[in-house]
Write a structure and sequence with these properties.
The structure holds two protein chains of two kinds. Chain A is mainly alpha-helical. Chain A contains 22 helices and no strands. Chain B is mostly helical. The chains are: A mainly alpha, B mainly alpha.
Chain lengths: ~425, ~170
């Protein structure tokens, strides 16, 4: 059987099984099983067990459950209220006023959370009611929150970066540090868009809150101290080379337990809820990772990634065309799949192509994260849309429309990254030297 | 029967949560041991085992809470008999795959035991001990899928709607 037939057969089988509602992790291992039985001589079952055990117990992955748990703890603290109170006084003078609390709040929370949907939910829990009370246009508050929530992935710590780092064998610490500047740039793009919109539609921005003295503003900002300390402990220790990503995650869990204890939001119930919530969320991802590791092995046996890399090489695409094609491909995939499945599903196949084209795996990791961010706000499957649907009780189509300008800004971000790759590579290089 | 099964899922999940805490302790131990200059051999490898145990043992409980993700685009669009048919197909396929992985995970742990497989890291653990968590987790997950399938066939299955699922990613 020719390679093309094999490929088409497997891809068709995969989409059929996924589309029919089989749980994603199991669907992946099912296709891997079929592929291995049909096209290789190695017994599939034993290979499956060994591979899954190897990936599920690897040391590099241990940062993942810990960062997830940390996010679950912080979600149950008063952090979002504190951040709104600390940030709001400083945003009054900007065009667009409190809409910026969405962007800045998400950017700061992203630096302690590895997840886009959790960032969106945590910040929105406070900002959406406050913005609505003051009469800000709903479409803008929802859109900016949906967009800025995705910063949770780009600004470290980041679940998707850990997953990428493990599957593509790139240093997680380097990825984390590499995401810092692009994250800030993307936040600036979001804020710039809000400011531009506010200048063009001055009638839609409600009046500012009563002014505060500088001292009062500073006093309100004391609420930001715990989160800033936590960011310093987690990212600072990685950047200074004191801790690996995993160890920073351990420190992060400890720090967030301390914060919630000091705030008085820690009791047996919230502790248990955060622990069980974190365990389940990790377990959900672990099932996908297990299936994906087996699928990667199976495809390696069939030789699919190598053939694909060779085939794409014969097309003679320039680097720019390749990136453009991949952006379109992932944007399309992102309409139907969640980010983690997208990454683990494609990485084994795409990575050889990317390396053959001479693209830096570190840069590509950040590129993938931005593309996955887009997937968070594209209907019909987009986790940030689901979160906002739950919070606002509005149609998913409406929310997607509100988020669309921010989707376009992320496309702009991909171009910016392509033109200025140093945005990604500068800090990691500093760290190495 | 119902209560025994639910207790099985929840009991395994409680074990998983304990392993999660031990994972945290392992990681903190590895930091302090380096800072204070004493050596705990294989602490990073143990952290890996803890993570595996936390993940596998919570599988069934996570399924029952409706937090394992799946593509529900088509399922959501269908109604009545067609929907039920597709749901039964998905449960059958999932149960079959879960049974396969339960069988081979158990076989792996058994072979590690029979051939005295020792971890290649500096922890020197007999591998069958940590691999038991994978075997047990996979078996309980398979039981949970068969349980769901039987409930669906009897028309008693209640699909959990999870509040938590929205923290995904």
């Amino acid at each position: 059987m020719s390679d093309i037939t094999v490929t088409l057969l497997l891809v068709a089988a995969l989409f059929l099984i996924l589309g029919s509602g089989v749980w994603i992790g199991l669907a992946l291992s099912g296709v891997a099983w079929v592929g291995m039985q049909l096209f290789s001589s190695r017994p599939a079952g034993d290979a499956m067990a060994v591979t899954i055990w190897g990936s599920a117990s690897s040391w590099t992955l241990t940062a993942l459950p810990l960062f997830i748990w940390m996010g679950e703890i912080l979600f149950r603290t008063r952090l979002s209220q504190d951040m709104f109170r600390g940030l709001a006084p400083w945003m009054q003078r900007l065009p667009g006023r409190l809409l910026h609390t969405n962007v800045v709040g998400c950017a700061i929370f992203a630096a302690v959370s590895g997840s886009s949907a959790a960032t969106c939910a945590t910040i929105g829990k406070m900002s959406l009611p406050e913005l609505a009370k003051r009469g800000y246009p709903t479409m803008m508050s929802i859109g900016s929150l949906a967009g800025a929530g995705t910063l949770g992935l780009l600004i470290p710590p980041s679940i998707i970066m850990i997953v990428y780092g493990v599957t593509a064998d790139v240093s997680i610490s380097q990825l984390f540090i590499g995401g810092v500047i692009p994250g800030i740039v993307l936040a600036l793009l979001f804020s710039g868009y809000i400011a531009g919109w506010a200048l063009l539609n001055p009638g839609q921005v409600p009046p500012r809150d009563p002014p505060m003295s500088f001292a009062q503003k500073l006093h309100e900002s004391r609420n930001l101290i715990p989160v800033v300390l936590l960011i310093a402990a987690v990212l600072g220790s990685i950047y200074a080379g004191i801790a690996t990503a995993t160890e920073a995650a351990g420190v992060g869990v400890l720090g967030s337990l301390v914060i919630s204890a000091v705030q008085g939001s820690m009791n047996w119930r919230t502790f248990k809820e955060s622990l069980m919530g974190g365990t389940r969320l990790y377990c959900m991802i672990a099932l996908i990772l297990a299936g994906a590791s087996f699928l990667t092995l199976s495809m390696g046996y069939i030789g699919l990634p190598r053939h694909l890399a060779e085939w794409i090489a014969t097309l003679g695409l320039t680097k720019f065309q390749l990136i453009l094609a991949l952006t379109a491909f992932y944007a399309l995939l992102g309409c139907f799949l969640d980010g983690i499945s997208m990454v683990v599903l494609t990485m084994g196949v795409i990575m050889p192509t990317v390396q053959k084209a001479g693209i830096d795996p570190l840069w590509f990791g950040i590129f993938i994260v931005v593309v996955v961010e887009m997937a968070q706000v594209t209907p019909p499957v987009g986790f940030n849309l689901f979160v906002l649907q739950g919070m606002t009780k509005r149609e998913i189509g409406t929310i997607a429309r509100a988020a669309f300008p921010f989707f376009l800004l992320m496309v702009v971000m991909v171009l910016v990254l392509y033109v200025f790759p140093a945005l990604v590579t500068f800090l990691p290089q500093q760290m190495r030297s | 029967m119902r209560r025994t099964l639910d207790a099985l899922y929840d009991g395994c999940a409680a074990l998983a949560a304990i392993f999660m805490i031990v994972l945290l302790v392992m990681v903190l131990l590895s930091i302090t041991s380096r800072e204070l200059g004493f050596n705990v051999p294989g602490v990073d490898i143990y952290a890996g085992y803890m993570m595996a145990a936390a993940g596998f043992l919570a599988m069934a409980h996570t399924l029952k809470k409706g937090e394992h993700i799946r593509v529900t685009l088509l399922l959501g669009a269908l109604r009545g008999g067609a929907r039920r048919g597709l749901e039964i197909w998905a449960l059958c396929a999932a149960a079959l795959l879960a049974l396969l992985s339960a069988f081979y995970s158990t076989k792996l742990a058994w072979q590690s035991y029979a051939f005295h497989d020792i971890s290649t890291g500096n922890d020197g653990t007999p591998l069958w001990i940590p691999q038991l968590s994978m075997a047990l987790g996979a078996i309980v997950l398979a039981i949970a899928f068969v349980d769901e399938l039987v409930l669906e066939l009897r028309g008693q299955r209640v699909e959990p709607v999870s509040e938590e699922a929205m923290h995904n990613e």
